[in-house]
Write a structure and sequence with these properties.
heterodimer; A: 244 residues; Alpha-Beta Plaits; 3-stranded mixed β-sheet; B: 290 residues; mainly alpha; Formate dehydrogenase/DMSO reductase fold; 11 helices; globular
Chain lengths: 244, 290
């Protein structure tokens, strides 16, 4: 049903640490690899001149001008935030888009999806992509087929993007439990919501890049204030006296 | 937003069709015999052609009937119900007019209200989307309703049609004026989209992907802005001013046909702009306000 659950028992989601993410795109490929099973995520013209494809996770890179500090490059993974007030769910005419009452994961049932695209329009975060081959909507499942999968070793029972991240920039857990690792990280590091004014109450949280201290002067700075001596010093003084 | 021909045709044709059906149902025009057959057929034909065009927008239309299940939450599902209910309820009225059965007009009044209700649900599909600030306004369903009422009045040969068409023009000017500031008023920036405004001012260093994707094709459409100003004048002239003037000339049914052709062309231009000018907040992640 496309009515949202009043509350969910668990609130499973991700914490993404923008301080440690190095933008290696490993989460993008791990996500694509795991979710390419079954119906998969189709690509179009993958080896041609105009490649395009369905991905559930994209990593942007931003440069940030930081006041009184050196500028920073911030790598920014973007995927479904499994919102509490998920606008993508309520707009769905068929009930294909739904939010699970037990753990809050937002999913699409491909067997009932008509591919109208309205859920993708409703999502402020661009988390949903219509599979051009299959004509149905695809989105992050929080690897629901891994996290409860008893046939996998326990260490693998987390989303593929989290499992693969080489810098530990991605964390998976239950936000309903205040003692969980993700809850403690959010409390300690000031985890925040994306576009909170959109009223979606995202479950996933982002940890801001840490302050990098005061700006170091340019490496060339000592060269800019050379005290000249001898002939050069005389020339410097004489030239300084000339007008213009 | 991508101005897909399927959704433009859908909302324009079905809006005009349901508007005309509302006038026929309410008895503003009571044709009889074969005239009734063709006029009701025109109303049904426009409405159904629009609905069929909408199915071309679906990636997986074989599950289409499931769209009737979520009317409690989804405006698209409500629209499915309202449109079918309208077409079913007005059928006996249409038959009565055609075959001279003289059935009471009650069904017609309910059907007329439902026809206009259908147009409102169409508008609400767009107006409900907060992520597209230009659409997220009560003027959106009012604009859809205005087009339906004016188009219906025009086809029905109502004396009020020129006034209604001028009303459409005023509505377009209002929605453009309000819409132009909507994105700014929504207050979302690349800073709030990424949350990086808490440390400084972000801008795009490198795109997340160099190839195209569904998000860019569907939500970040920038082609139309270049000629938007000219297209607005064209839409205003064709959808509102010219057909209103033509209807004031003593041309009879020829005038109605001419006005209808002008109005429909203008409505298509206006609807194209409605999509092409609408900017989705997801564009902020790509450094495109669009």
């Amino acid at each position: 049903m496309t009515a949202l659950p009043q509350a969910t028992d668990k609130r499973l989601g991700l914490v993404i640490d923008l301080d440690t993410c190095v933008g290696c795109q490993a989460c993008v490929t791990a996500c694509k690899g795991w979710n390419d099973q079954g119906d998969g995520l189709s690509d179009q013209d993958a080896y041609g001149a105009d490649p395009s494809g369905t991905f559930l996770n994209r990593v942007h890179s931003y440069q940030v001008a930081v006041p009184d500090a050196p500028p920073q490059i911030v790598n920014f993974p973007r995927s479904c935030l499994h919102c509490e007030v998920a606008p993508c769910v309520t707009v769905c005419p068929t009930g294909a888009s739904y939010k699970r009452a037990e753990d809050g994961i937002v999913l699409v049932n491909p067997d009932t999806c008509i591919g109208c695209g309205l859920c993708a329009w409703a999502c402020p975060y661009g988390a949903r992509e219509l599979d051009a081959d299959q004509g149905v909507m695809k989105k992050c499942t929080l690897c629901v087929d891994r996290i409860y999968n008893q046939t996998l070793p326990e260490a693998d029972r987390e989303p593929a993007c989290v499992r693969t991240c080489p810098t530990n920039a991605r964390h998976f857990g239950d936000f309903a439990d205040p003692e969980s690792e993700v809850s403690r990280l959010v409390a300690a590091r000031g985890g925040y919501d994306l576009m909170p004014d959109m009223g979606t109450k995202p479950t996933n949280k982002y940890l801001p890049p840490r302050k990098k201290g005061p700006g170091e002067a340019s490496l060339l700075a000592p060269l800019l204030d050379i005290k000249t001596t001898g002939v050069a010093g005389w020339l410097d003084r004489m030239l300084g006296k000339l007008p213009g | 937003m991508n101005p897909a021909p399927s959704v433009i045709l859908f909302s324009t044709l079905s809006g005009l069709g349901f508007g005309f059906l509302a006038f026929l149902g309410a008895g503003a025009l009571v044709p009889s015999g074969w005239a009734a057959f063709f006029l009701w057929g025109l109303g049904y034909g426009l409405a159904v052609a629009g609905l069929l065009a909408a199915t071309f927008h679906l990636g997986n239309p074989k599950n289409g009937l499931l769209a009737f299940t979520q009317w409690r939450t989804s405006w698209l599902s409500r629209e499915a119900w309202a449109s079918v209910a309208t077409l079913v309820l007005l059928a006996p009225v249409a038959l009565s007019d055609w075959l001279g059965l003289c059935l009471p007009r009650g069904f017609g009044w309910v059907g007329a209200a439902l026809a206009l209700g259908t147009v409102v649900t169409t508008g609400m599909i767009y107006a409900q989307i907060k992520a597209v600030p230009r659409w997220h306004h009560w003027l959106t369903p009012v604009m859809f309703l205005g087009f339906a009422v004016a188009g219906g009045a025009m086809l029905a040969g109502s004396a009020l049609a020129p006034l209604a068409l001028v009303g459409v023009g005023a509505g377009l000017l209002a929605i453009w004026r309000v819409g132009d500031g909507a994105f700014r008023r929504a207050g979302q920036t690349m800073g709030s989209a990424t949350g990086l405004d808490r440390i400084g001012t972000p801008w795009v260093f490198e795109p997340a992907h160099t190839g195209g994707n569904y998000i860019r094709r569907e939500m970040i459409f920038v082609v139309g802005r270049k000629h938007a100003g000219k297209l607005r004048w064209i839409a205003l002239g064709l959808a509102s001013i010219l057909p209103a003037l033509v209807l004031l000339l003593p041309l009879g049914w020829l005038g109605v046909a001419l006005a209808a052709g002008l109005h429909l062309t203008g409505a298509l231009v206006a609807r194209w702009l409605f999509f092409a000018e609408a900017e989705h907040v997801v564009g902020l992640y790509y450094g495109a306000r669009g």
